[in-house]
Amino acid sequence: MSGAAGTSRKKRFTDRFLKGSGLGAWVAYLAIRSLFAVLQIFPLDRNLESARIIARIWRLVMPRHRQLAVSNVRDSFGNRYSTVELKGIADDSLESMVMFAMELVCLPRHINAFTWSRYIELENFDDALRILIEGRGAILVTGHYGSFEIMGHLLAALGLDMVAIIRPLDNKYLNDFVVASRKTHGLTLLDKKGAAASAEEYLHEGALVGFIGDQDAGRKGLFVDFFGRPASTYKSIGLLAMTTNVPIIVGYARRLGKRPRYRVGVQRILYPSDWETQDDPLRWITQEYTRAIEALVRDDPRQYLWAHRRWKSQPRRAQALQPAGAALKTG
Q1: Distance CA 236, CA 243 (A)
Q2: Cβ neighbours of residue 98 under 8 Å, at least 6 residues apart?
Q3: What CATH number should be reported for the domain holding residue 281?
Q4: Residues 59, 200: one domain?
Q5: Kind of pairing, strands 162-166 and 187-191?
Q6: Do 90 and 161 belong to one domain?
């Protein structure tokens, strides 16, 4: 009973202060904006140090997130790591996520056309650069890895038309602030609900449209292999690529140590000619960019968000085996 009561209180608090557009949401917004203002006073290095301290508190106060991370790493890598190593990867993963949250607030104002090289070095970027310069449009895909917003900020700072598909924040005031602030830095944000038509239009105009490609899509998603297990994945990326005939660039922003220094690179590029000859192009596209995300995670698993429920949805056997085209017909 006490557990149920605690859950109910937590839900009431969340609904009152973190969701919607009421007075409670406004108060929460003001508090968060005040915190943002304080953070901007300090150097980025110091803020990242504070983030690492917060991460240590997080794993003590909410141990279930660390436990979930340990479980996901173990299920993904089998016996490759010892128990001590698993806990170390989980701890670094939580630390990386809190550092990302701090970078989300503090880093955009530091990156512009003149200063980006102080923070970013490029890797395996030549082929992608040629695509970007052509101005024919491209889809950018990454995962919950490293400082995954940086690639978008970099390309926007360089004057490219950059659009990112996001899930809106529940707090309306905070969401409006984030959208406006990203627009100030040249980055357009689109609500993922109903974004397909707008994204297609942007791509036809030669823009770059970015997605986080490792989010659970529920039972209606397309199930592909991710670390040896079926993972529900959104069909929208593949469908958009097939409709607009633009390449998919799978990229990353890997943090270099504990300082504000990042390596932005490209793991793989999928071209329309690659999937045109496939029997099931939608499934092939979805599996291949998911495989590319897995490859970059394997390079440094400590920077992946193992605490997120990537494998939350699991398929019925018939659903897992059917072609993507059949899945589309059934919804």
Answers
A1: 10
A2: 51, 52, 54, 55, 58
A3: 3.40.1130
A4: no
A5: parallel
A6: no
Residue-range definition of the domain harbouring residue 67: 2-106
| Ranges in the chain, pLDDT < 50 | 1-2, 4-7, 10-16, 318, 321, 326-331
> How many domains is the chain partitioned into structurally?
2
Chain centroid offset of residue 81 CA: 25
User: How does pLDDT run across 264-283, given as a tens digit for each residue?
Assistant: 999 999 999 999 999 999 99
Give residue 26's pLDDT: 80
CA atoms within 13 A on the CB side of 235: 20
Q: What confidence score (pLDDT) does residue 19 get?
A: 61
End residue of a domain, out of 106, 124, 149? 106
Query: Where is the domain boundary, 106, 133, 151?
Result: 106
Which residues, including other chains, have CB under 8 Å from residue 109's CB and lie 6 or more apart? 40, 185
Q: Within this chain, do residues 240 and 124 fall inside the same structural domain, yes or no?
A: yes
Q: CB of 275 within 8 A of CB of 242?
A: yes
Residues 98 and 125 in one domain: no
- 208-267 per-position pLDDT tens digit: 999 999 999 998 899 999 999 999 999 999 999 999 999 999 999 999 988 899 999 999
| SS3 category, 224 | strand
Q: Do the beta carbons of residue 279 and residue 169 sit within 8 Å? A: no
- On whether both 73 and 206 belong to a single domain, the answer is no
Scanning the structure block, which residue is given the tokens 């980025």? 44
